[in-house]
Amino acid sequence: MPIMVWTDDLSVGIQEIDSQHKKLVGLINTLHDAMKSGQGKQALEATLQELADYAVYHFKTEETYMQKFNYPEYMTHKNMHDAFVRKVTDFQKDFAANRLGLTLDVMNFLRDWVSTHIKGTDKRYVPAFTHGGVK
Predict the structure, then answer these.
(1) What angle do CA 109, 112, 118 make, to 5 degrees?
(2) Residue 3 falls inside a structural domain
(3) Domain range holding 38?
(4) Is 23 among the domain residues?
(5) pLDDT tens-digit profile of 60-75?
(6) How many domains, in total, are found in the chain?
(7) Minimum mean pLDDT among 78-82, 98-102, 114-118, 130-134: which range?
(8) Which long-range contacts (CB under 8 A, 24 or more apart) does 82-87 make?
(9) CATH code for the domain in which residue 19 is found
(10) Residues near 116 by Cβ (< 8 Å), separated by ≥ 6?
């Protein structure tokens, strides 16, 4: 059973962003499945790296639109993105140094952050993006 299920309340109604959010949800689920099945450290590190890389790619997409449309909450939103990237980077470093296992607490953090961020923070930029012509 996946740790995170895509539901309509996660949709921001913008195809490109929803597609990227679905990919993030899928990567969280892949990481969770790998953790549950006891895959080796190398496999978990690779999946965690893919999640981190994709998050950076996705955040860049959102931030580019925010700048393009002079979104007033850009810096606050970017700071949230940066904090998430730092947290995941810390997970990666601790995991690689055997100071942290990929636990349910880590998985719950990832799930909860993504869900809360999409449902709250991301939905606030939708009017600016759609007014700018993004569909």
Answers:
(1) 130
(2) no
(3) 10-131
(4) yes
(5) 999 999 999 999 999 9
(6) 1
(7) 98-102
(8) 84/55, 84/59, 84/113, 84/117, 85/52, 85/55, 85/56, 85/59, 87/113
(9) 1.20.120.50
(10) none
